[in-house]
Design a protein that fits this description.
five-stranded antiparallel sheet, elongated, Alpha-Beta Plaits, 13 strands, single chain, SH3 type barrels, mainly beta, four-stranded antiparallel sheet, 2 domains, 167 residues
C-alpha cells in the first residue's frame, strides 16, 4: 500500500534531491511557496521550500526498493523509527496540495485575528486607545483599521500586535 514518507535533505539541496529521486523513478513532492524578499531596494517574490530541508516521497515499502533513497544525492536520510521509515498520516500531503495555486505554489493565507467590521482598540503607538473598525490583513504581520477622525475615515496599517478586540 502506498503512503507518503518524509525525506530529510542536505542544506539547500531540496531541488537536487527531488530531481535525483525522480530520475530513479520515485514519486516525490516538494511543496514551495512564494516568499517576499528585499534585495537592492527591490522587493521580489522567490520560490522557497515550505519545509526547508524536507520533501515527501510516495512509496510502497512492500513492493519498492526504497533503500536506494538513502544514497541519493541531496538526501540525508528518510525519517525512520529504527530501520523502517515512518509513514505520514493519510491526507497530510493531499491537504498541502489542495492549497496550491495555479502556479504550483502553496498559498500562505494568514488567519485574520478579527472578523471584518469588528470594532478594535489600538493598544500601542501614537494612536493608543483609539477605537476603529477592523478592515483586514495588509500583509503577514500588519492589519488595516478604519479610524473615524475629525469626521473622516482614515485607513491605518498597524502591527497585528498593536490591536485588540474592543469590549
Amino acid at each position: 500500500m502506498n503512503a507518503w514518507y518524509v525525506v530529510h535533505t542536505h542544506p539547500h539541496a531540496e531541488q537536487t534531491a527531488l530531481q535525483n529521486l525522480a530520475r530513479q523513478g520515485f514519486s516525490a513532492y516538494l511543496p514551495r511557496y512564494l516568499k517576499r524578499r528585499r534585495h537592492a531596494r527591490r522587493i521580489e517574490a522567490v520560490a522557497r521550500p515550505l519545509f526547508p530541508r524536507y520533501l515527501f516521497v510516495n512509496l510502497d515499502l512492500g513492493k519498492m526498493r526504497w533503500r536506494s533513497i538513502m544514497s541519493t544525492i541531496g538526501v540525508r536520510h528518510l525519517i525512520s523509527d529504527g530501520d523502517k521509515p515512518v509513514a505520514l498520516p493519510d491526507g497530510i500531503v493531499d491537504e498541502i496540495k489542495a492549497r496550491e495555486g495555479e502556479d504550483g505554489m502553496v498559498e500562505m493565507r494568514p488567519e485574520a485575528p478579527f472578523e471584518a467590521g469588528q470594532m478594535v482598540q489600538i493598544t500601542a503607538g501614537p494612536m493608543c486607545d483609539a477605537i476603529g473598525m477592523f478592515e483586514g490583513l495588509s500583509d503577514k504581520d500588519r492589519v488595516t483599521v478604519l479610524l473615524d477622525l475629525l469626521g473622516r475615515q482614515l485607513r491605518v496599517k498597524l502591527p497585528a500586535t498593536a490591536v485588540a478586540a474592543y469590549v
